[in-house]
Amino acid sequence: MTDDFVADVTSVAALSEPVRRRLYRYVVSRDAPVSRDDAAAGTGVAHHVAKFNLDRLVADGLLEVQYSRPPGRGGPGAGRPAKLYRRANRDIAVSLPGRRYHLAGQVMAEAITIAGRERVPLAEALTEAARTTGRRLGEAADGAERPAAEVVTDVLERHGYEPRPADHEIVLANCPFHSLAAEYTELVCGINLDLIGGVLDAVEAGGLCARLDPAPGRCCVTIATERDLV
């Protein structure tokens, strides 16, 4: 369970409280940041209730705060800037099991861009895009003084693969692109293989190798030591 997952679940759970949910929906429906007074009036709750719950929504990462004086008021004597609320600039998604369709979309969009720019077959561009994306994920990991297998496991855990060590290999218990894989199995398995291969490249996990090893109920890729692949 990653820190990002915990933060997203906490944020979504905050909306289970009806008053908080009503205030959130009011704020995000406005074209401009909203004051406490406006939020209270717009949702029909007391000012102190609006204040408490708006600040909770900020603490839970759903809203952000900015300070601004009313139009036409400035300089000495204008008073303190008003505290205003707006939707937080972050995406929040929770799925169980973990899915990362945005990552598949990123790979495909990059592949289409490469194919058009370099005039290469789309299949070749898809391999390059998936490998590049995997390397990017691996390079973003903190690998300082840690075994390569541990770093790889952390990266894949963060991106929904649910890695599990088993007899000199790492089994990936979840496919983050499950629905796509069910309809476009060969295409998505190729993306998985190249993306995970890119992670291994970036981490310089010389003793590890990704291979296609499909089985029901898990990702089609297994990571094994090179010696086990002979």
Kindly describe this structure.
- The protein has 230 residues and is of the alpha+beta class.
- The longest helix has 19 residues, at 185-203.
- The model has no long low-confidence stretch (mean pLDDT 89).
- The protein contains 10 helices and 7 strands.
- It starts with a helix and ends with a helix.
- The strands form 2 sheets. The protein has a 4-stranded antiparallel sheet with strand order 4-5-7-6. A 3-stranded antiparallel sheet has the order 1-3-2.
- The protein has 2 domains: 3-87, Winged helix-like DNA-binding domain superfamily/Winged helix DNA-binding domain (Arc Repressor Mutant, subunit A); 101-229.
- It has helices at 3-14, 18-29, 36-43, 47-59, 101-118, 122-139, 148-158, 178-183, 185-203, 226-229, and strands at residues 34-35, 63-68, 82-87, 163-165, 169-172, 208-212, 221-225.
